[in-house]
Batch of 2 targets.
Target 1
Amino acid sequence: MAKIVVVTSGKGGVGKTTSSAAIGAGLARAGHRTAIVDFDVGLRNLDLIMGLERRVVYDFVNVINEEATLNQALIRDKRVDNLFILAASQTRDKDALTDDGVERVLTEMSKDFDYIVCDSPAGIERGALMAMYFADEAIVVTNPEVSSVRDSDRVLGILSSKTRRAANGQPKVREHLLLTRYSPARVQRGEMLSVEDVKEILAIDLLGVIPESQSVLTASNAGVPVILEEESDAGQAYQDAVARFLGEERPHRFVSNEKKGLFGRLFGS
Amino acid sequence: MSQARASNPVLEFKGRLMTLTILRLLDSSVEVLARELDRRVKEAPAFFRHLPVIIDVGEVASSDLHEDLPGLVELLRTRDLVPVAIRGGDARWAEAADAAGLSVYAAERDPVARRQAPVEDDAAPAAAAAPASTAEPVVERTGGLVVTQPVRSGQQIYARGGDLVLLAQVSPGAEVLADGHIHCYGTLNGRALAGVRGDTEARIFCQSFRADLVSIAGIYSISEQFDEALTGKPVSVSLHGDTLRIERL
Ligand SMILES: Nc1ncnc2c1ncn2[C@@H]1O[C@H](COP(=O)(O)OP(=O)(O)OP(=O)(O)O)[C@@H](O)[C@H]1O
Ligand SMILES: [Mg+2]
């Protein structure tokens, strides 16, 4: 039985898709059979970030509508073993994701995979609720600013009350905070909330802090999940986050504003 | 999965607890009321703008003011208030309200009569701005509610008929209400309303005070009015006459 992990945020553009790709790839590299499912119907950019857009033949909606089988629609990543993508449709709207359809597809996938990572659309509307509904674990992606933190708080309320686990009275969805686009320099100047501020407001476990980094943009333009860029600060931060997700303890890096050494100047942001 | 989730709803009716302002009429002359209203609105125009109100006619029910109800409604509307219903009065009043496009809140819905009648989900628990009622608070206390999870932004929790005990935080944008006391052992952000059915003895206690609004029996105070020295401190909020007292614990 797969664990279903939703990557969600409420606010748009905070790094959900970037994180879904990185964490999905990280889990697969750790030997877990992993699928990343794009719930952002109509926009479809997971496959772009993963560099797979030209290999999409069938998508999530085709499988829901039984126009294709799961095996036809799942795209196998050529760089990372055990990693598969189920793309979103570009031509449909969010109503194409029916409750029963989504449940059926996730149930079928659960038999074959260890992890199913659901990349949620922004907002707290139907598409986002659907991505959250079946989750066992949630990675709440938050930027260090007030509006993003407020939206994450709202999403945490929904996770505790409007998911399958809540409806069935099962143990609650396990919540992880992933703080992204973090800039220690801007925190020091008082332009952003600090890690401590955000932890205090949201009061959930900190899975990782991903620094604001040029390497994210470079990697996504190249169609490579940034976690595969071993030398980059963001890539390393995602590696730490995946290790913590799998139970390892690691100190948080990239949270303070120390001077960059030669290495940092060459490879950092 | 349930049918309700499977269909794609275009509208939804939801029972919600809202704090509503009650405008009690204590004089049956439209002129006198108009003058007083103007004076009040001038004091705090922003507060009154688009404020939904229930007109409580209990005190003037025996007068002929109901004949002037359309005029009174017009008067309120031109001052940017939004009358939504009347409360109290007899059949003559109900008819006048109907003609003026207002609904009628039966007098049974006020705290006194609730002793006999169980409360419904759609009942408005309190009048935020006005002292809810001069009647004795007679809300029956039952068990109370203990909440272990944080109350998140956009969520609302109401302990009907008792105390509300919050073991974790209340987030900004959340609202907690109780007929009795509210105890919060985490940080209290958002809005906290105790004694919402008129219990003036109800109190609010919290470990770390960062609320946007606190209210007891309809008397409320907002963060601008709080003493800054109390921010983040353990406090208790209690009602003394018409004033809220916020003190360090
Ligand atoms: N750590 C980071 N450093 C710098 N840029 C980042 C970082 N994380 C994400 N970005 C950039 O932010 C933008 C939004 O990222 P992404 O698409 O992952 O967000 P999203 O939450 O999925 O957005 P949406 O809500 O639209 O689905 C992208 O341009 C991405 O390259
Ligand atoms: Mg996205």
Target 2
Amino acid sequence: MIEYINKIKEISERLLKEGIVDIIIGFRKGTMPMMNEPCFAKSPEDIKNLVWDSNCGINLANYLTNYSADRKEKIGIIAKGCDSRNIVNHIIENKIKRDQLFIIGVPCKGMVDRRKIVSIFEREIKEVTEEKNKIIVKSDGFEKILKKAEVLQENCAICIHRNPVVYDELVADLVEEQKDVDRYEDVRRIEAMPVEKKYKLFDDLLSACIRCYACRNACPLCYCPTCFVDESRPQWVGKSINPVDIRTFHFLRAFHCAGRCTDCGACESACPMDIKVRTFTKKLEKDCFELYGWEAGMSLDERPPLDTYKFDYPD
Amino acid sequence: MSDWEPKIVTFLCNWCSYGAADLAGISRMQYPPNIRVIRIPCTGRMSPKFILTAFRQGADGVWVSGCHPGDCHYIEGNYYARRKFALFKRFAEHMGIEPDRLHFSWISSAEGTRFAEVANEVVRAVKKTGPASGYLKAA
Ligand code: SF4
Ligand code: SF4
Ligand code: FES
């Protein structure tokens, strides 16, 4: 990772100095271990703070949304495989122009799930460092070494597009993509259940939801100026934590991501209540693949499945 | 529960299926009174929000009907709609809405008979499935 960050800093500094971009969107250390936060670097000072490690799971494409249309800055953005696919989404949805961006591609080796680490470690974590395929977790006078493969985010464990799809410069050689991955084992398990059981499953899954909308806010796809949850005439969904309201919110949030979701996992890792919200979006992802052979964000030249049609497609 | 009758919110495209409903009526064809018709300008106007709102307010089934592919008044609205609907139906099942509650059809304004037939089929399917409560918001 140290090679990655050196290269990221080197490229970022050059881009800013030569005036190729006005801002770099990357990561800096957060206030707690394993909580890197987005960083908007405009000066060499800011560049010093940039970091790169296995805690960069936030999808940076989300921070491009407010740069569209009226803002003309040239933006440098650091992009893993999934971020790059969400950048492609933004471009084909006319949120931003390709030539407004300088994409610094990061061949990704997977991000860790801080919750898994917290639950294994069982005491307050003071420091987390990493070395090759190991994660070293420290507390006062206590240390544990974990295998990174065992604490990966679930979406990273089944990721088949670790390399960025679009980029202007890479920080390292492309990594080998994971092969023979069964991406939809969990969805198939749910599909096999009778409808009542599915209903019950989601009742349990959503029982803890507090409607904080962190899942929505973390997602680069959710950029509508007024979200349907805030529409009041008519009101599509109540504001309460009534189970039907919660369920309706999740149904529509996921459906709005149909054909667009890249399974970046940002929604799931943002949830303060640990709710596996990818259970919804993955079903749509699978169906888009099965019905239309579609994977979101892979190409700048193809229209997403709900924005196009074929004459001969049956019903 | 034996005298329970389902409510089926029915979205009909102004240019075809709505006309078909008219024709069925003028021709005095019989079809069950369970459908509640809402006229829409085109199936392309359908939004998943409409469907969930119907269930939220007490529908037991939803039926959307529009022009045959190739005959849409706006040329391609129904081509988009059928993709949206195909995904919606699968996703709704994932989220606990029985497939028999959701129906989609193409009926032109000359097909009054077909309108009555499909209305019968839809009502039969929803009746078999029983009252819906999963997305019903108690007032
Ligand atoms: S729905 Fe979740 S996994 Fe999909 S793109 Fe949005 S944040 Fe990423
Ligand atoms: S982030 Fe979690 S708790 Fe908040 S609205 Fe989403 S699912 Fe509910
Ligand atoms: S006008 Fe009837 S479906 Fe478009």
